[in-house]
Each structure stands twice: as C-alpha cells, then as structure tokens.
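Quiz preparation item.
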C-alpha cells in the first residue's frame, strides 16, 4: 500500500485556491443580484392608439412579459421606428408579433442602446407588462 501525504505547502496552495474561487463566486453572484431590476405596468389600451414603453439598453438582457384580455400587437423598435410611427408611418420592428394575448421575449440589447416596446390593440382592453432587466434574467 502506498501512503499519500500532502505537505504543508500543498495544503496552503489548495486553501488559497479555494479562497480565491469563493471570492470570485461571491463577487459574481453579487453583481448579478445588484444589476437585476423589475417593473410591472398595468395599462389600458384603446383601439388604434399605440402605447410605447422605453426599454433601457444599459443592461445586457431584458425580459418582457405581456398579457392582455384581448389580442394585441407588439413591436420592439428603436427611436427611428418610433418617429415613423408618430408621423403616421409603419414602425420598423426588430421583434414583431400580432394578435396574441400572452407573449414573452428575452431581448439582448447592445449596451447604451435605447429601444421601445410598442403595443397596439383593435379593441379596448387592459394589459399587464412586466419588464425585468439585468446581467442574467430568467
């Protein structure tokens, strides 16, 4: 039988490596928790009157969850698309879905980019919009 022993020097290296790993893990978890934010909006929609919400691109990931009683149309666009919509044109959408009651989208936006969530309905309805942002979002 072989006896395996560790020297005091090997134990110190292992302890130092575990300590360094735990510090890095704590800093990473703290960063993820500190950057997470969430907001819920309850809005009323009127026929052919678009509502827009700003989606801040300072975070890497944004989760958008929309639910409504009647079918709605969703569009994620930038400032150019929003201006086109305000002047009566059609918005250029990066994400577009129509006639849905529930929709969920994970959006990874460039840092410093500003995007807008536009929601339209053909009927009068109420919608709930939850926007979560952070480094990692479920």
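Solution:
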């Amino acid at each position: 039988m072989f006896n395996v022993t560790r020297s005091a020097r090997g134990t110190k290296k292992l302890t130092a490596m575990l300590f360094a790993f735990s510090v890095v893990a704590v800093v990473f978890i703290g960063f993820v928790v500190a950057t997470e934010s969430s907001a819920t909006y309850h809005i009323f929609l009127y026929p052919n009157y678009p509502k827009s919400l700003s989606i801040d691109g300072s975070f890497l990931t944004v989760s958008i969850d929309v639910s409504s009683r009647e079918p709605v149309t969703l569009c994620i666009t930038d400032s150019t698309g929003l201006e086109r919509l305000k002047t009566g044109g059609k918005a250029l959408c990066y994400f577009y879905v129509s006639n849905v009651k529930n929709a969920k989208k994970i959006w990874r936006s460039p840092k410093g980019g500003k995007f807008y969530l536009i929601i339209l309905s053909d009927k009068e309805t109420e919608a709930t919009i939850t926007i979560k942002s952070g480094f990692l979002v479920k």
